[in-house]
Design a protein that fits this description.
The structure is a single chain. This protein is of the alpha/beta class. The chain has 2 domains: 30 residues, no CATH class; 231 residues, NAD(P)-binding Rossmann-like Domain (Rossmann fold, 3-Layer(aba) Sandwich). 41% of the residues lie in helices and 11% in strands. The chain has 8 helices and 9 strands. The strands form 3 sheets. It has a 5-stranded mixed sheet, with helices on both faces. The chain has a two-stranded parallel sheet with strand order 1-2. Strand 7 and strand 8 form a beta hairpin. The protein is globular. The N and C termini lie far apart (51 Å). The structure holds NADP nicotinamide-adenine-dinucleotide phosphate. The site of NADP nicotinamide-adenine-dinucleotide phosphate (NAP) has 22 residues, from loops.
């Protein structure tokens, strides 16, 4: 487990060791709001572990405007870019562990987002929009990573866990935050129920066909076309490489031209007034 709060993570590791009688549960420091911390975590992991079979990209921030250590808008930086960088740096270990899996936590709120490549700080800032945008990026990342890693037998899944009563709303300020937290305690799923689709993707059998897809309740969750648009996903990939100071060595898989979406003459990604009509 990668945790930014070592004490908190270690306490959970002890609980898991006790419950499962598996002594090999370890917790290492990882702050997804810092590219340096991610690099240090991966260097440490790479020295200790020969392979990696399942990577679950779970962490998320939702709250008032803030930035990461590297100066990126915090939802974008933690929820998406940090996971992008982490996954990229771990790809060789995933290759060695193949068949292996990457699971990206997304949210159905992605469909409310617009991604303007020229406005990463997000002006004006809005909590819902910032969170939704980070999840749109995770949906796009899921498609793009699948295209780039499928040839290495690394399968990639997005998971929308449903609405789950966790601490995700802890930073939502004001009365609205109090109301949302109260409602979530009454109406939302338990964390145990919310984790089932993640577990399904981590250990389920015959999952190959589902790589590149998003799942909810252990079934395919249909994602809007614009969130899978090949040119836009590739653009986000290249931008992310740049923001992380990386050069790509994972070529895009060009074997599936049938998947190619409509040419993207737009500056941003997101819901449009109406989806373009298909030509007859
Ligand atoms: N709950 C829902 O209804 C819902 C719905 C759709 C999707 N999701 C997604 O499910 C995933 C899990 O969220 P959750 O509901 O369990 O929320 P949560 O209780 O707030 O858990 C989020 C976790 O992310 C960690 N985290 C935040 N910033 C971090 C950073 N900079 N570096 C490392 N770790 C960091 C937190 O660590 P600390 O414990 O140290 O704060 C916490 O353990 C998220 O990706 C979320 O977007 C949740």
């Amino acid at each position: 487990m990668g945790c930014r709060d070592r004490k908190k993570g270690e306490a959970v590791a002890i609980q898991i060791r006790t419950k499962t009688h598996n002594p090999d549960v370890y917790c290492y420091e990882l702050d997804l709001a810092s590219l340096t911390s991610i690099k240090e975590f991966v260097d440490d992991f790479n020295n200790r572990e020969p392979t990696l079979h399942v990577l679950i990209n779970n962490a998320a921030y939702m709250g008032p405007q803030s930035t990461t250590m590297d100066g990126y808008e915090r939802c974008f930086g933690v929820n998406y870019l940090g996971h992008f960088y982490l996954t990229y740096l771990l790809k060789d270990k995933l290759r060695r562990g193949a068949p292996s899996r990457v699971i990206n936590l997304i949210s159905d709120t992605y469909s409310k987002a617009r991604l303007n490549f020229d406005d990463l700080p997000l002006t004006p800032y809005d909590i819902k929009q910032a969170y939704a945008r980070s999840k749109l990026c995770m949906v796009m990342f899921t498609s793009e990573l699948h295209r780039r890693l499928a040839g290495d037998i690394i399968h990639v899944y997005g998971v929308h866990p449903g609405w789950v009563c966790t601490d995700i709303l802890r930073n939502w300020p004001g009365v609205a935050g109090n109301i949302l937290r109260t409602v979530s305690r009454v109406l939302f799923k338990s964390p145990e129920d919310g984790s089932q689709t993640v577990l399904f993707c981590a250990v389920g059998e015959k999952m190959r066909e589902m790589s590149g897809k998003v799942l909810e309740n252990c079934n395919i969750f249909k994602v809007k076309n614009y969130a899978k648009d090949r040119e836009q996903c590739e653009r986000l990939w290249n931008l992310s490489l740049n923001l992380c100071g990386l050069e790509s060595d994972i070529p895009a898989d060009k074997r599936d031209p049938g998947e190619k979406g409509p040419p993207a003459a737009v500056q941003d990604v997101g819901p449009r007034e109406a989806e373009p009509k298909k030509e007859k």
